[in-house]
Structure formats: structure tokens, C-alpha cells
Design goal:
This protein is mostly helical. About 85% of the residues lie in helices and about 0% in strands.
Length: about 130
């Protein structure tokens, strides 16, 4: 039940944020300070912040609907949040930028990573079950 709730939250957040970034990539300039200087750059923002985010959200949604995919989705999120949290926190500390968007994202990604480590170690789910 806890895994389904977690996957549901992630599905909603990843899908809605991804759709927002796909439709309004210029919105990233205000919140995250990320902007494109060319059509190629805009497409990159839409693909990475839009398409990829929606795809991760859909994997989480599929994990709710099919038990065997829940384990896959949880492990995928483990690697995603490990990469995001490790790099974001390390660079934020290095550059002294633990404020605003970076602070919020660091806390969220680290909390998700810690939850996943705890949950997956505690439950030791098997693939294909």
C-alpha cells in the first residue's frame, strides 16, 4: 500500500510537471533559472523536462496498475533520485546555492531517495512478483 501511494504521488508530480514543461518551457526560467537561447535549446528543455518527466510518471502509473512493474518503477526511481540528489546537493554545497528552487528540490529528492532505500531494504521486493 505504501509503495502504491508513493508511486501515485510520483506519477502525479512527474506527469504534471512534465506536461507543464512541455507546454511552457519558458516557465523554467522563472522557477529554476533555466532558459533556452535557440529552438534546439527549447526542444531540449521540452524533451528532457517534458518528455522524460512524463515518461517517468507513466512508469510510476503503470507500477500502480501492474504489480510486477511496481518493483521496476521503484528501482528506477531509486536510481533517478540517487543521481538527482547526489549531484544537486553536492553542487549546491560546492557553489553555496542551497536556497529557493535548489533547496526545495534537494530536500524533496533526498527525502524520496531515503524513503526508497528504506522501503526497498525493508521489503526486499522480487522482480516479477
Amino acid at each position: 500500500m505504501m509503495a502504491k501511494l508513493f508511486l501515485g504521488l510520483q506519477a502525479v508530480l512527474f506527469i504534471f510537471y512534465g506536461l507543464y514543461c512541455l507546454v511552457e518551457p519558458r516557465g523554467l526560467a522563472t522557477g529554476a533559472g533555466v532558459s533556452a537561447t535557440s529552438i534546439t535549446g527549447t526542444i531540449e528543455l521540452q524533451a528532457m523536462y517534458g518528455g522524460l518527466q512524463v515518461a517517468v510518471g507513466m512508469l510510476c502509473l503503470m507500477g500502480i496498475l501492474k504489480r510486477s512493474l511496481a518493483v521496476v518503477a521503484l528501482h528506477a526511481l531509486l536510481f533517478i533520485f540517487a543521481g538527482l540528489a547526489t549531484v544537486r546537493v553536492s553542487l549546491a554545497l560546492m557553489h553555496g546555492d542551497l536556497v529557493g528552487y535548489t533547496l526545495f528540490a534537494s530536500i524533496y529528492e533526498t527525502a524520496c531517495l531515503l524513503f526508497l532505500v528504506w522501503y526497498l531494504l525493508l521489503h526486499r521486493p522480487q522482480f516479477g512478483t
